[in-house]
Amino acid sequence: MPLNKSLLTVQTGAAVSQGLNVVALVSVGMHPTSGRQRRAELDARAVEQGLRLIHTPATPQHSAHTLDVVHCGSTDTPALKQYAGMGLPHLTILEQPTQNDPLPSLIDYLQTTRADIVLAGMRAESGESSGMLPYLLANTLNMPIINSVAEIISVNQGQVECLQALPRGQRRKVMVNLPCVITVDMAAAAPRQSAFGPGQRASFTSVPVKETADTVRLSWTITPAKPRPKRMKTVKAKTAADRFKAATAKPEQQGGRVIAEESPDNMAHMLIDYLLSEKAISTANKQPN
Questions:
Q1: What is the three-class DSSP state of 217?
Q2: Where does the record place the Electron transfer flavoprotein alpha/beta-subunit N-terminal domain (predicted)?
Q3: Which residue, of 99, 209, 272, 278, is most buried by count of CB atoms within 10 Å of its CB?
């Protein structure tokens, strides 16, 4: 009996959907105490979410997902090996000076690669640290954006379902169409430990890009950050809970001095000395006698 070729075609001709193209954007972090370069905490959590997403086993209907970790800068940056040590075989480096604007380079690269999901931390640890880059990318590429994501739950039928972190530990499920931009919150899973060996063996693919100088940043004067002035709090008890808290709280200042009987000059000097002790003003603002 001859084979039914049409039936054979129907059985073996099932379409296999292409896997997701996931791109994680990483930057160079800075240790808060030593100031040394390291992997950025939020960007490392974004890479962790990407690794968990691509490790989803492939099925006959869906091929495996791919993860591309992209950095704008130099291949000689030592902190990039800490990302590679998380189990990445290679990283993509868009070669450009640090002071250049990374937005045009990322837009051209993402349009070329046609990324389905763009992962990034909510804010970098060095540079401008404004947190605006993911929003500018989403606006230019006409993609929806989900911020403060704690977990990527699933990706089905052209939609991604995420768990969004809200204030006071609350969570909310959000579903958005692909392609999209996702920014990862500190509530996301901690990044896996970086191994030294895989970080040294990983390859770095350098991609030449059109350099765009950040003229606004070149005009800035960058100085070390200083402690902010401490606010002097005034307790305004309106409820019973506020009155109880004010009554049981440990006072920040002990003692005091009444200066109503002093001369205006003495009162002014005492007030300036008090503001200096509270670090509300600096010695540079104190006028000479």
A1: helix
A2: 42-207
A3: 209
CA distance linking residue 22 with residue 2, whole number of Å: 46
What's phi and psi for 204, nearest 5 deg? Answer: -120, 120
Convert the pLDDT of each residue in 193-216 to its tens digit. 999 998 899 888 888 887 777 777
Q: Are residues 211 and 259 in the same domain?
A: no
Report which of 48, 81, 84 is spatially closest to residue 190, judged by C-alpha positions: 48
Q: Which pLDDT belongs to residue 7?
A: 36
In a domain, residue 86? The reply is yes
Number of domains in the chain: 2
Going by the DSSP 8-state scheme, the letter that residue 182 receives in this structure is E
Helices (H), 77-195: 80-84, 103-113, 133-141
pLDDT tens, position by position, 55-106: 865 544 456 788 999 998 888 888 899 999 999 999 999 988 877 888 888 9
52-79 core/surface letters (b: 16 or more CB in 10 A; e: else): ebeeeeeeeebeebebbbbbbbeeebeb
| 139 shares its domain with 191 | yes
Q: Give the integer Cα–Cα distance in Å for 57 and 87.
A: 17
